Amino acid sequence: xxxxxxxxxxxxxxxxxxxxxxxxxxxxxxxxxxxxxxxxxxxxxxxxxxxxxxxxxxxxxxxxxxxxxxxxxxxxxxxxxxxxxxxxxxxxxxxxxxxxxxxxxxxxxxxxxxxxxxxxxxxxxxxxxxxxxxxxxxxxxxxxxxxxxxxxxxxxxxxxxxxxxxxxxxxxxxxx
Length: 176
Prior knowledge:
Layout: E1 4-10, E2 15-17, H1 31-40, E3 45-49, H2 50-55, E4 72-76, E5 89-92, H3 96-105, E6 110-114, H4 116-124, E7 130-135, E8 144-145, E9 156-163, E10 169-175
Parallel strand pairs: 1-6, 1-7, 3-4, 3-6, 4-5
Antiparallel strand pairs: 2-8, 7-10, 9-10
């Protein structure tokens, strides 16, 4: 069975965005970002929460269209309603069974794009298999937490560490 991989940028203090969804302090170009973009091309399925999908609107994403044209999209939300959905964009209710069915049907590993609340919900239900942190050398002190409001404690094993000249690291962890 394929894995759900939470591949996400994080500050040293565990935030995936600053106050008001500000990402301007994150490293947005360079070798590490190119590696991340290359890695994304290997995924055929992406799952995300509503807020993460809507965050893309700030960068030109048209509602109902795919954020990643090469991937089948599953946006988990209890409230989202969009017209004119592209064939590869699906709105899903928050359902453990649905996540498991998507995982069972996937041809490649699944990219968990976020965000924090959705990732926390998946963590609470033991549905994240691997964590790939694009660890940025910044401290944000507030914003969107890596796992939202989750209080689930888990242990992870570092299996790979890549360091780039600008201070960005890509750290890969598997669940213990």
